[in-house]
Amino acid sequence: MSRVAFIFPGQGAQKAGMGQDFYEQSEIAKEIFEKASDLLKIDMKALCFEENELLDQTEYTQAALTTTCLAMAKVVEARGLTPDITAGLSLGEYSAIAMAGGMSMEDAITTVRKRGILMQNTVPTGEGAMAAVLGMTGEAIEEVLAGREGVTIANYNCPGQLVITGKTSAVEAASTALKEAGAKRVVPLNVSGPFHSPMLKSAGEELANVLESVELSELKIPYVTNVTAEAVTDIGKTKALLAAQVASSVRWEQSVRNMIADGVDTFVEIGPGRTLAGFLRKIDRSVSVYNIQAWDDVDKVLTALQEGE
């Protein structure tokens, strides 16, 4: 019997029109979008479905993407597909926790709204930067960064694709050094801050205060935390991990490898885009990977999984 993981994308996957077909076709999804609008006093339909500048602003992106991913995932769950474990890339971890039963959808959506505001406003624009490093191993990047101040690894996405983060000048200097050390390309990212760097430590501390008032529930299934790449079964650890996550490296490749080692052989990416499916193919091509980002994908994936049993 297959062991199934639901996986959720992070910031950057958002796109205008995401979730609109789910809203139009499903009362479950419609209710989630409308509830998010009421909770945040934001027109979530306009934010997610229409072309607009706000969707790419961190303080709006995080709530919009979480709402969309949870609306899609709840439809999939209602259709009878349930995961054995969940995981999410950075922001996606909130959807993973909610789908694992540890946090209500309402709390996930309101918390990421506050998280987005903290992450956007902690470091003044221009002082921090991020860059994708292509064609280089994590060990080789760590060696180049050793001894350098102000720059660290933000994301271990998959073999040959990592992200560095930190002070703008330090990221620029490290980018030059990495190219000289053999990186195929180093691509500056269009982001509003140095996410997952120690520069956001104060945002994590403020997020810890926000999380104090969030009521968590015992997990129905494990989820995997970005901070350690390990499965979490004790909800008591979750608040500290989420607070630390803001300024810690996202260990996505390690998370996937640990799930595979634990017997997961089927991954279902839920949310806009195919970013995580792409990472998975570079991590381990032996596992089955499916993507649900449109209404028609639900039937296709359910049929494919039933036929594969």
Which secondary structure elements does this structure contain, and how are they paired or packed?
Elements: E1 4-8, H1 20-25, H2 27-40, H3 44-49, H4 58-78, E2 85-88, H5 92-99, H6 105-121, E3 128-134, H7 138-145, E4 151-158, E5 161-167, H8 168-180, E6 185-188, H9 201-212, E7 223-224, E8 231-232, H10 238-245, H11 252-261, E9 266-270, H12 275-283, E10 288-292, H13 295-308
Parallel strand pairs: 1-2, 1-9, 2-7, 9-10
Antiparallel strand pairs: 3-5, 3-6, 4-5, 7-8
Helix pairs in contact: 2-4, 2-6, 4-5, 4-6, 5-6, 6-9, 9-10
Q: Could you name the CATH homologous superfamily of the largest domain?
A: Malonyl-Coenzyme A Acyl Carrier Protein, domain 2
Secondary-structure element order, N to C:
EHHHHEHHEHEEHEHEEHHEHEH
Main β-sheet: number of strands, strand sense, barrel status? 6 strands, mixed
What is the strand arrangement across the widest sheet?
8-7-2-1-9-10
Number of strands: 10
Rg (CA only) = 19 Å
Q: Which regions are unreliable across 5 or more consecutive residues at pLDDT < 50?
A: none
Category by helix and strand content: alpha/beta
CATH class of the largest domain: Alpha Beta
Q: What is the total domain count?
A: 2
Give the distance, in angstroms, between the N- and C-terminal Cα atoms: 7 Å
Q: How many H/I helical runs?
A: 13
